[in-house]
Design brief:
single chain; 234 residues; 15% strand; globular
């Protein structure tokens, strides 16, 4: 496949862990553990296929409404996998956390900040991890920052444009979003990268995330490559 037909930035909605576990008579957190294994592999697959950046929807602002034991299991799983993420960062990969880290437990928050700071100069690949993230909350945050700058006199309302907003989003240092892949059979964005998805291609797949394979990723990229992206033109 020609390099210009490979998406530079892919967003992954990692969906279906709970249903995958339920089908096997296992607790939902078992599915999250298997899904985390696929997350690690998916970073390697993206690198092998020539993708520059991937953002993974790991925990949304709405996920706090889930049962407390499931949330606790996800956070403990995150603690374990931060070690693996650190190894990934050591392999010339930059880590960017999207979302409000302040609501996470302090040890998790501190580790994620450390990961971001230590990997900031890595250029081989960029992995975004959306934690306590919501697309609407991200836009509200950007609006608040702009409002503060207007009140302080740093900018005027006439200075506000799309570029200014984009520079205040969590993805400001990432390539434009080209493709969103959602396994599990659901066909919606669920508040994921809603500003960035304005012209992204969407691929929905029936496979549950713990069963997602490199072949599925290749299939989605091939579908992306076959589409005619006009960006409003002819």
């Amino acid at each position: 496949m020609e390099d210009n037909r490979i998406p530079r930035h892919i967003g992954f909605i990692m969906d279906g862990n709970g249903r995958w576990a339920k089908k096997r008579g296992m607790p939902r957190n078992y599915g999250h553990t298997k899904g985390a294994d696929v997350f690690k592999k998916c970073i390697d697959w993206c690198k092998e296929l020539g993708v520059e950046c991937a953002t993974f929807y790991a925990f949304s602002t709405e996920n706090w409404n889930r049962p407390k034991d499931e949330i606790s299991g996800i956070m403990n799983l995150l603690r374990r996998y931060i070690k693996d993420i650190r190894k990934t960062a050591d392999n010339d990969t930059r880590i960017i956390v999207l979302g409000d880290k302040s609501r996470l437990d302090k040890d998790i928050c501190d580790d994620l900040i450390d990961l971001e700071e230590k990997s900031v100069n890595n250029r081989g690949f960029t992995a975004g991890i959306a934690l306590n993230y919501g697309g609407r909350a991200e836009i509200v945050r950007a609006a608040q920052l702009i409002a503060n700058d207007c009140v302080s006199g740093k900018i005027s309302p006439e200075d506000i444009d799309e570029e200014l907003v984009e520079n205040l989003l969590y993805t400001s240092e990432m390539p434009p979003l080209d493709l969103i892949i959602r396994p599990s059979g659901e066909k919606r964005l669920s508040n994921f990268l809603i500003w960035q998805a304005a012209y992204a291609e969407l691929v929905f797949m029936d496979v549950l995330w713990p069963d997602f394979t490199k072949k599925d990723l290749q299939s989605a990229i091939e579908e992306f490559a076959a589409r005619n992206r006009r960006f409003g033109g002819i």
